[in-house]
Amino acid sequence: MTRPALRQDSDSAGCIFDLSRTPVRELNQVLHRLTGTTNERHWIILNPGGQHAIGVGVDAPITIEVKGHAGYYCAGMNKQSTVIIEGNAGVGVAENMMSGFVHVRGDASQSAGASAHGGTLLIDGNASARCGISLKGADIIVKGNVGHMSAFMAQAGSLIVFGDAGENLGDSIYEAKLFVRGKVASLGSDCVEKNMTDACKNELYAKLKAAGIAGEAGVSDFKRYGSARRLYNFDVDRAGEY
Amino acid sequence: MCGIVGLFLKKKELEPDLGRHLSRMLAVLSDRGPDSAGFAVYSQPEEGIIKLTLRGPKAYDWAELKQKLTEKTGLSANIDARDTHAVLSCHPDTSNDVRAALHCTAPEVSVAGSGFSMEIYKEVGRPETVTKRFALETMGGSHGVGHTRMATESAVTTKGAHPFTSGPDQCLVHNGSLSNHNSVRRDLVRQGLKFETDNDTEVAAAFLTAEMNKGLNLGEALERSLSELDGFYTFVVGTASGFGVLRDPIACKPAVMAETNDYVAFGSEYRAVAVLPDIETAHLWEPEPARVYFWERSA
After folding, report:
1. CA atoms lying within 13 Å on the CB side of residue B138
2. Is B2 in the active site?
């Protein structure tokens, strides 16, 4: 097994990988070989430079710190691992994530957490259009704003937004839960505001707590949105909405 | 796909480095557009000089052309050759005579663009090869835009490469595809505009020029394109004083902006601006859909 441009740092027990010297493909090949019993649990990625597909398809209980801006699909299909991006993330961060925790310290581009099945995606900044499109079970927490068409056709899981949501939030939504603290520019087809019950507040609190940010926002300040379930069965009088 | 870059320098002392930065930005976006590449570079206009960027066949004898033109017109025109392109500088009052003389003495040469500030270069091939052929890294200027093309709706030819220009000192680069360009082209042809290709971006460039000919400024013309042009687009438009950015209302195509005290930069992806100095401390953001952005050099 070759380990190019890799060195063990004895102080932090971290494996350091410099993407200005070694291609992303080699990094991912090394990460893909890791299993649940690996002792190499702390990975530091230097000079990401906006390169694509960093840490895609990892399936091991490790922590990956990306020291800079990531390109497209960072932490895509993630299982188990914790990925911390100390910068912005390009299109499709944590897309199709199955489990684990992905933390973007900056902003995320379009389609953040697209079709993610499980795990948590935490974005400190803003996420642009189509955040959580076709969401299938993951929890996405955005401390800033989300762009238009977020949670489009979202089926399960939750999208929690501390800031504002752009136009057509939750268009054609199924059973995903949307919590927005700020303003919603407009709701998409079949998305409606729903009662924020005590059970919903408890659920929201639990999700924030699990992400380690329970004290950062009061759950009573959020409004909840979800499906009116009018598009589930064909209704000729609503043909224009399909 | 396709890749777009734009760079606007805020300080005069940085201008010699414009081409070096642009060529590095374009090289990064080769994998978004390996078919052809092009760029427009803007520099301070010189009193009494208009520049025509000429495009000729491979290994063209530009010195001979200069001699022929001088003999034919008796006018003084300087020709600065770069591979298949050359910049002809002459007095604005004589430019029509020079164009006419070009047309009859050298029909194999076409005028790729004109302006007091703008020079425009484009060619088929990988972007890093194209920028080397034209020695972009040696060019200075205040601002510039560039494009790497992955052709979708029309042929891979030099004429089909971006930027497209349809008026003096105006050019457009485009990532996306327009779906109503044929009907818009028909309308513009009726208004008297001429087209060289079947390309959708040429229509967008001509549309903006036609709107500005009606008296709109560039920002207003871009606003008009939101209602008249159907399809996907991120546009970057170069003018004598700066450049503008517009994304379609659903923001189909990517765009990243970076600003420091020294420059404003545009890239289809962060990777393209990552090669710029002080990018670590730059303000980075994605332009909002359906919103016109503009940076202009104050006079």
Report:
1. 5
2. yes
**φ/ψ (deg, to 5) at A171:** -60, 135
* Chain segment A85-127, per-residue pLDDT in tens: 999 999 999 999 999 999 999 999 999 999 999 999 999 999 9
> Could you say which of A71, A106, A149 has the minimum Cβ distance to residue B269?
A71
Residue pLDDT, tens place only, B156-200: 999 899 999 988 999 999 999 999 999 999 999 999 998 989 999
ipTM of the complex: 0.85
Indicate the fold that domain B47-116 takes in CATH.
Alpha-Beta Plaits (3.30.70)
Cβ neighbours of A145 in B, within 8 Å: none
CA distance B47 to chain A (A): 42
The domain segmentation of chain A, as residue ranges, is 48-229
Fold of B3-44+123-296: Glutamine Phosphoribosylpyrophosphate, subunit 1, domain 1 (3.60.20)
- Order of strands across the sheet that contains A156-161: A6-9, A14-18, A42-46, A63-67, A82-85, A101-104, A120-123, A136-142, A156-161, A177-180, A223-227, A191-194
First to last CA, chain A: 53
In this structure, whether the domain defined by A48-229 belongs to CATH 3.40.50.300 is answered with: no
Taking CB atoms and an 8 Å limit, are A129 and B270 in contact across chains? Answer: no
Q: Model's pTM, two decimal places?
A: 0.90
